[in-house]
Write a structure and sequence with these properties.
The structure is a homotrimer of 153-residue chains.
Chain A lengths: L6 E2 L2 E6 L3 H11 L6 E6 L1 E2 L4 E2 L10 E11 L5 E11 L5 E8 L3 H19 L3 E12 L4 E10 L1
Keywords (chains A, B, C): Decarboxylase, Lyase, Pyruvate
GO molecular function, one term (chains A, B, C): arginine decarboxylase activity
Catalytic activity (chains A, B, C): L-arginine + H(+) = agmatine + CO2
Chain lengths: 153, 153, 153
């Protein structure tokens, strides 16, 4: 099997770019995950996976990552992205949720909080804590708001 | 290289949720793949990969999975998702197709059957069998129909 | 951690299909990546990763791949896809960009060139070379244009 990740951090950033993909690329760079190969996952915090905000990811490595983002080319539009990691009160797995939309950062955080709570309720698990990262951006020309939970080893 | 999967199963389920992402999450749970990290793949059944309907996936593990899904927030709308695994008459690889749409389960299954047949024709391979999983859902508030082929070890 | 890829090639192809997914499947086959499981990545060329245009990928294997594609069912519409790999003048990592749209191959290549240049500028890196693969297709019934950078070992 593929090795199960053991560490994670949460991150969020916004950026402008000259194109939609480079706006995304620039937001990844600001979020400290621009020089790796993101493998998008949906979205469980593995049992025992430890929060490590100082993780340094080797350039070009394959990094399983839960993320949400939104790109807009409508000047003045407000966009936001948020991720939340729901930590279990017992020592088993957690749940990761991501959200992006044309809304404020506060609305994105509220949406994430509700989603994580629902995910824990559905699983009959007790929620100890939610780690959140969020970002809000007012588009100048072409902007991207991105939030991510990179999983690592 | 990354290890090539050796086992698989087919699954499909529908669910409601309070948001689009939790509707998806709830459908994953009902399909028995809600507590793992799906890595979306497109979509070949590796040579020798065995059907194992009783597979139990460890929580948080990285699971290469071909899947299709549709989320709708239009009450009354009928949505369906279907996957099909085309098995080769000789002992080489097979082909996985996924489909989702605003249609009945029967239409989704027919679409999948046609797609698998076309994929085999194109490759000049003989089709022995198609394993199908499908689901249909009438949306109440926010619903998701999902079909998946998890690949495992 | 997951093993970091060591080889790559660039490829692009277009095809018709009887459905949108089989048009995509047929384009993958013409691009020589139709019989593997693509794991979509975004999108860095790992340090030391070597160009190998003759790579043969084992059927069913998991292949980290940066790709862009567009599917259209509008007869007569011109669609294009392009990838570009920006190679660094020093021996560190490069950047991969992908693009697809309703435009000519030349426009797609120009977009990719601009995106790779921006990605290098942002990172303060010097661009030695861009390897490009692109394809243009005039849709008959249902067509797909696809460009990809498979990463391998």
């Amino acid at each position: 099997m593929l090795p199960t990740p053991k560490k994670y951090f949460v991150t969020a950033a916004s950026s402008e770019g000259r194109s939609k993909l480079t706006a995304f690329d620039n937001a990844l760079l600001k979020a400290r995950i621009g020089n790796v190969n993101l493998l998008r996952v949906s979205s469980i915090l593995p049992p025992g996976c430890q929060h490590d905000p100082d993780l340094v990811l080797p350039p070009g490595s394959l990094v399983p990552t839960a993320y949400g983002y939104i790109v807009s080319d409508v000047p003045g539009e407000v966009i936001s992205a948020c991720v939340g990691v729901g930590i279990n009160s017992s020592d088993t797995f957690g749940v990761i949720m991501e959200f992006s939309g044309k809304c404020s950062k506060e609305e994105a955080e509220q949406a994430i909080t509700n989603m994580v709570k629902e995910a824990f309720e559905t699983r009959g698990m007790e929620l100890k804590e939610i780690k959140i990262a969020s970002t809000e951006h007012k588009v100048e020309k072409i902007g991207c708001a991105l939030a991510a939970v990179p999983l690592w080893y």
